[in-house]
Amino acid sequence: MTADTLVLVVDDDESVRTGLTRVLRSAGYAVEAFEGARQLLSRLPSVDLPCCIVSDVRMPGMDGLALLEELGSGTAPALVFLTGFADVPTTLRAMKHGALDLLEKPVSSDVLLAAVAAAIERALKNEETRHRVHDLRERYRTLTPRERQVFALVTAGLLNKQVGYELGTSEKTVKVQRARVIEKMGARSLADLVRMADRLGIAASVDGAPAGEVHRTAPPTELAAHL
Question: 118 and 37 in one domain?
Fold first, then answer.
């Protein structure tokens, strides 16, 4: 689990940085240490490995909580906090903004390594998800504009007849286009295609398809009445 991953340590106390680095490297992790949050933020854009952050909470300048908020959520590295003052408000704020763990100083090697292992596991899962989404985006780019419309409408739950009505084409044509979408996206089923649309953030709008692509000329209920 330690191969091809990186642990980034942030603490304004040099002796703490040295101790944490020694423990983590002895466990096989690649480690980089920083005396402040802004130095870490400058380094992050060039990090191309799954990584996690071990940071003190109270530091001069940008503290750990401000760092956490700056990182945001989603694809941000998992963050483990260390603090000598684990009060309830700090803990709640840290967890609310996505901290994976908050450990009280002095922390034992076993507790630290367990927290880092969990953070690295999350980083690896996030990396896998990023690769999967990147692959889906590449497949999506191979779709024609009309196939993208069909993709959005089909995964929104419309039947082939309804899609044809929306696009002003025949049901037979929609079936062919739908088959091409499934083939190009590498979907095994409609449910699989729906999951792909969800990961890509593709959804039909209230007008029936991504904005600007399709405009509904009759409400779904009126359409259904004629099917």
Answer: yes
